[in-house]
Amino acid sequence: MSLPSPRSSLHRAGATVTFVAVSLALLTATASAQSPFDRVQEGWSFFGQNGQSAEVRVGIGGLIGPDYEGSDDYEASVLPVITARNVFGFNFTPFAISYNLAEYNAPGGIWGVSFGPRVAADFGRDQDDNAALAGLGDVDAAIMPGGFVNWRLGPVVAGMTVGQDVAGGHEGLVADFSLSTRVPITHQVVVIPGLSASWADDDYMQSYFGVTAAQAGTSAYTAFDANGGFKSIGASLTAIYAINENWAANASLGYERLLGDAADSPLVDGQGSANQASVMLGVTRAFNF
C-alpha cells in the first residue's frame, strides 16, 4: 500500500468522502461526550454571540479511502487535524471555514436553526494518482464560497452547504446535504450515525467524471459527457471517546454510492467502482477559551 501525494489525500478526504469532514466537524463541537446543544442561548443571536464557548482542537488522523473519486483502489493517508468551533463566530475544519451569522433556538432548546457564509476548498486531482487517470490531465484546486444552513430538532441535525468554485478548478457548483443524530452510550462515549447526499452541476461532473474529445485522444477512453445531478448518497457511523476533558479519540466508517453520470463514467464503470468506502481514526486535544 503506497502513500499518496498530499494533494490527492486532501482531495479524497475533503471532497470524495463527505463523512470525514462531518466527523471532523463533530470533533470541534464535542469536547466530551456532551452535546454541543446542552447549553443553548434561547431566541435569536447574531455574529456568533450564541453563548457557547470557543474551542480549538489539534490532533492527527489516519484515513483509508479511494485514491480518486470513483476508484476501486485504496490508499492510506496520515493528516494533521486542526479544527475550531465558535472562535469569534467562525468554525473551521481542514476543508472549510464558516461564520455563524445568525442562530435561533426555541424556548427550551427543543429546535433551532443557524446559517451563514462558508468557504470550502477542493484540492483537485492529479492524473498521476492512478493509472486509470492517465491522459486526462489534472483537475486544479478549487475555492468555493457559498453558505450553510443547519436545522436542529432535539438531537437530530439536518444540514445543507452550497459552494461555487471561483478559482478555475472545476468551475462547478456543489450542494451537500446531511442528516445526523447523537446517541450517548456512556458519559464518555457518543455514537453519531449520519446520512448524506451530494449534488453537483455540469461543470463539476464533467471535470471529475467526463471525458472530453481532447482527453479521448490522449487517454484510453471514448468521449463521455457527464451531466449534473445527484452524484452520491452515503451513510456514516462515527464514535467519539472522551479520554478526559481535553483529549478525545474518534473512529469513523463511511460508505458512499455514486449515482447517475458519476456511476456511469468510464472512470468508474469498468475502471473503478460506484461503491466508495472509507475508514478514519483520529485523536485530538481541545483548547477552550
Question: What structural keywords apply?
Answer:
289 residues; mainly beta; 12-stranded antiparallel beta barrel; 5 helices; 15 strands; 14% helix; globular; disordered N terminus
Radius of gyration: 19 Å
Mean pLDDT: 87
What is the percentage of strand-forming residues?
over 45%
Distance between the ends: 41 Å
The global form is: globular
Uncertain spans, ≥5 residues at pLDDT below 50?
A: 1-38
- Assembly type of the chains comes to single chain
Biggest sheet, in brief?
12 strands, antiparallel, barrel
Approximate helicity band: 10-25%
Q: How do the helices and strands follow one another from N- to C-terminus? A: HHEEEEEEEEEEEEHHEEHE
Count of strand segments: 15
Sequence of strands across the biggest β-sheet: 2-3-4-5-7-8-9-10-12-13-14-15
Query: What structural class do the secondary elements suggest?
Result: mainly beta
The helix count comes to 5
